[in-house]
Amino acid sequence: MVETDYYELLGVERTADDRTIKLAYRKMAMECHPDRHGGCTEQEAKFKALNEAYDCLKDPQKRAAYDRFGKAAFQNGAGGGDPFGGGANFDGGFSDIFSSIFGEFMDQRGARQNAARGADLRYDLELSLEEAFTGKQASIEIETLQACEPCGGDGSRGESKPQRCGTCGGAGKVRAQQGFFVVERGCPTCYGHGVTIADPCPQCDGEGRTLKRRQLSINVPSGVDEGTRIRVSGEGEAGVRGAGPGDLYLFVHLKRHPLFSREGTTLVAECPISFTTAALGGSITVPGIDGAEIEIKIPAGIQSGDTLRQRGAGMSVLNGRGRGDLISRILVETPTKLTAKQKELLCQFRETETGEECPASKGFFSRIKSAMG
What we know:
Elements: E1 2-4, H1 6-10, H2 18-31, H3 41-57, H4 60-69, H5 94-102, E2 121-127, H6 129-134, E3 136-147, E4 163-164, E5 173-178, E6 181-186, E7 195-196, E8 209-220, E9 228-232, E10 248-254, E11 260-263, E12 266-274, H7 275-280, E13 282-287, E14 293-298, E15 307-310, E16 326-333, H8 340-352, H9 359-371
Parallel strand pairs: 2-10, 12-16
Antiparallel strand pairs: 1-9, 3-8, 4-7, 5-6, 9-10, 11-12, 13-14, 15-16
Helix pairs in contact: 2-3
């Protein structure tokens, strides 16, 4: 499962205040509004994603849920845990999410109820733009809690086995009457685990897991962008005493490219050309993101800042087929080092100018002359 982080999408830090988030949303929404791009489907999709992100982050309760559980917080019936902490089940719907967030009771040792499932892990993966285009089988190394080998993950030594807690009956929690209310707390005997261990494993002290380093091979799909989140199920921390593991979340970060900047699936390259090429026309060749050379035809009379589009020469479409476009932004360069011969030729050209060669300049100076009366 691949999804974009709301904070990355809006370009703000996770600690940003409400005003910062609001200003970032307004600026980006204005830039990519579909009406400004002639109904471009790519900009329309980005605009919808921005609205989805802002709708979540502007609401304190939704933001709290998202910070903890990611988009899983808003998927009814979705199992699993949050991307930065412990596990939780959402089978009961949205109301259960907030119950999970704010309804957890801590016993005297700080053990959380039902904290058996392993924690989710985050890994920041840096890719070049070429790797994001083609996809990659990434090899990463992480240090995480894994099932203890000597005890097989159950936390007990040798032939002894964990026994069901006699205080809570294996539930991991006990109830106490306080006036009209019934308060549920973590079991003080088993500390919320539901079992007790008479003879703990000396390797893991009865927890059933130890800290180790390991190598993972992760398939990164083509077309990922800055902030893309990749979920690798079951590759987080091992659970306590044989409980299920958490998940691993990879957050993609792209290195700066020397030629291209990226706008979704569109690549933008700034291409300087000589003023003679701009005046007479011609062609230039640039290397494509796929390694193939791309010839760009320059029409005569092109102006600095004009753009040329090559269809299908941009980035791969994430989870889809096809490619975006390549936009070449033309920058007309004025020569700074001229030979005597070149200066002579330019002087001859200037003597033949009528003003019709550069209509924008002619119109500008005409307006100035009229304004000064």
